[in-house]
Amino acid sequence: xxxxxxxxxxxxxxxxxxxxxxxxxxxxxxxxxxxxxxxxxxxxxxxxxxxxxxxxxxxxxxxxxxxxxxxxxxxxxxxxxxxxxxxxxxxxxxxxxxxxxxxxxxxxxxxxxxxxxxxxxxxxxxxxxxxxxxxxxxxxxxxxxxxxxxxxxxxxxxxxxxxxxxxxxxxxxxx
Length: 175
What we know:
InterPro entries: Endo/exonu/phosph_ase_sf
Organism: Ridgeia piscesae (Tubeworm)
Number of helices: 3
Largest sheet: 5 strands, mixed
Helix content: 10-25%
Protein name: Craniofacial development protein 2
Structural class: alpha+beta
């Protein structure tokens, strides 16, 4: 697993994967931690068993941002706290099947709460945007406000004609 230090990665010659004639499964899990030995491989096996094309992961507890290629050939894009001495808390990731990786146009890490990826589709001039988020709990007012401001800023820069899917754990408290 060799991480890249770039926050934004461009793919070359993407191959479309989203089609109206084929089912693509997209899911999200709260993993509680990926900061354990072989946890990535375990999640990759589960992703394959459920035939999930793009799997969003919350609470990865990885720091920095980048991408890793697992031994099982999955590509995992991740985003966490950027500070050198950051605690292993929060963090989000997108685990991509080979098919999704081939369709990847670009991705962007937005701190420990949001990661975004854009994929080529079969429909010309239309992209699939997937935003994986892990919101702070509602008790943390300033962090919650920052999270929703970042999310809104990201959504505002996406084109309306593109398909956008928001997945993750919004940690809402009711009552």
